[in-house]
């Protein structure tokens, strides 16, 4: 199967060829701006990695494993639950840039609060410190959720062609910057004592995230020619059940995605398991983040190439497959070297899940309502991704890490089976109405 134009771009080009042509002219400029923004903000997120750095930070304050699960629960619940509101805020608007810039500023404010939290260590009771930290994490996660539908829609419209190239270039650039960042994490956590080490990390995250705002101001966009009518939030929400009933493949995608996301819950606990199981020092957090970042950097161009040529359904199934293999490996072979391999597989799996999530949402939604469909898909994930890490922490505290890894593997297998049984490749469905897909230009 050769390279195929995505279903949403085909429809957009058919209805509004002048708009697609204009955005294709901005492709190079926007790609450069995306690379700078995503790389710098990605570096900030590496310093605040929710599955390596933040669990280790919380572990310095408390030995309750459930609090580590609370990190992922808060992050994912706030991130996903706020997306429908974010989608509504851009619904009926012809442009996205000013909205993205406003919410991006809120993200940086949340990182500032997290950095200020470190100054409370040894000055306030641990319970109060954790409360402030989790509130700051919630603000950061809500802002990331609010921006996601508009940002995703912005990507789908400004990158109408060669999206695999976009994800590959952004992924490689972000990965190279992230690798340098993970080396810095290792050095900082090893060289400085707690809490100074985390103070340096969090303030560094704030500094580079502020620099990324400059790149956002450089984005170029055109007024979208097919804007849905503005409605009240009540009408907006009440229309969701009808959309879910109408788009059966979108409904199947949500079910498969829920299982795949539950299957990767174990990833939030791999770093603390490895540190405790193998008696590793704090610098190992940087090593794990480095392996994770390098794996995601290598996986993104490969999976983007696969998605452009074979579609993103197969990429989602790769995520499910790797989600079952990684916890089984650590379950059956609890050795340090296997732990490093597990982090590499986890990086590939997370990259596959992220790429499939966003691109399948693009292709399974109408081009003039992308933000709403992204918001619906992500908001429906909120209870799944919120309860998953909490249940994972409970499994560890009540039974063992092995119980968690076994459950994660089973859920990933279930996601793979459901995908094969109920989810069709969107581009094949589009081919029913267009026997020969038009090749992407430029």
Key traits:
about 450 residues; Growth Hormone, Chain: A; 20 helices
Number of strands: 0
Radius of gyration: 21 Å
Enumerate the spans where pLDDT stays under 50 for 5 or more consecutive residues.
430-442
Order of helices and strands: HHHHHHHHHHHHHHHHHHHH
Find the CATH superfamily.
MFS general substrate transporter like domains
Q: How much helix, percentage-wise, in residues?
A: over 70%
Q: What's the overall average pLDDT, rounded?
A: 81
DSSP helical segment count: 20
CATH architecture: Up-down Bundle
Broad shape = globular
Question: Helix- and strand-based class?
Answer: mainly alpha
How many structurally independent domains? 1
CATH topology: Growth Hormone, Chain: A
The CATH C-level class name: Mainly Alpha
What is the CA-CA span between the terminal residues? 20 Å
Strand residues, percent:
under 5%
Largest sheet: none
């Amino acid at each position: 199967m050769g390279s195929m134009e995505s279903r949403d771009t085909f429809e957009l080009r058919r209805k509004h060829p002048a708009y697609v042509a204009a955005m294709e002219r901005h492709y190079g400029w926007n790609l450069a701006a995306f690379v700078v923004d995503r790389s710098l903000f990605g570096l900030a997120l590496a310093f605040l990695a929710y599955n390596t750095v933040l669990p280790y930070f919380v572990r310095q304050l408390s030995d309750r494993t459930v609090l580590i699960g609370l990190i992922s629960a808060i992050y994912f619940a706030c991130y996903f639950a706020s997306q429908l509101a974010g989608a509504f805020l851009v619904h009926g608007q012809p442009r996205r840039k000013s909205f993205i810039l406003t919410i991006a500023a809120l993200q940086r404010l949340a990182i500032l609060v997290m950095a200020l939290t470190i100054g409370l260590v040894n000055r306030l009771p641990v319970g109060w410190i954790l409360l402030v930290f989790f509130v700051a994490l919630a603000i950061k996660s809500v802002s990331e959720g609010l921006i996601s539908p508009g940002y995703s829609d912005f990507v789908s419209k400004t990158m109408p062609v060669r999206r695999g190239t976009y994800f590959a270039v952004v992924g490689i650039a972000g990965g190279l910057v992230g690798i340098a960042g993970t080396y810095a994490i290792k050095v900082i956590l090893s060289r400085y004592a707690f809490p100074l080490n985390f103070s340096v990390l969090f303030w560094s995250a704030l500094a580079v995230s502020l620099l990324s705002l400059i790149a956002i101001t450089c984005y170029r966009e055109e007024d979208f020619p097919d804007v849905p009518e503005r409605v009240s939030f009540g009408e907006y929400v009440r229309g969701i059940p009808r959309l879910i009933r109408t788009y059966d493949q979108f409904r199947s995608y949500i079910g498969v995605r829920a299982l795949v996301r539950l299957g990767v819950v174990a990833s939030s606990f791999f770093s603390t398991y490895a540190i405790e199981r193998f008696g590793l020092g704090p610098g190992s957090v940087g090593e794990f983040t480095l392996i994770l970042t390098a794996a995601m950097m290598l996986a993104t161009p490969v999976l983007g190439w696969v998605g452009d040529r074979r579609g993103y359904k197969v990429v989602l199934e790769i995520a499910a497959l790797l989600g079952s293999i990684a916890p089984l490996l650590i379950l059956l072979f609890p050795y340090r070297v296997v732990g490093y391999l597990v982090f590499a597989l986890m990086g590939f799996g997370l990259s596959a899940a992220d790429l499939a999530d966003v691109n399948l949402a693009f292709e399974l939604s109408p081009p003039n309502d992308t933000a709403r469909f992204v918001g619906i898909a992500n908001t429906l994930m909120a209870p799944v991704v919120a309860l998953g890490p909490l249940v994972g922490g409970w499994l560890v505290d009540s039974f063992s890490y092995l119980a968690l890894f076994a459950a994660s593997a089973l859920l990933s297998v279930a996601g793979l089976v459901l995908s094969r049984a109920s989810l069709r490749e969107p581009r094949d469905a589009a081919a029913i109405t267009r026997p020969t897909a038009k090749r992407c230009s430029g």
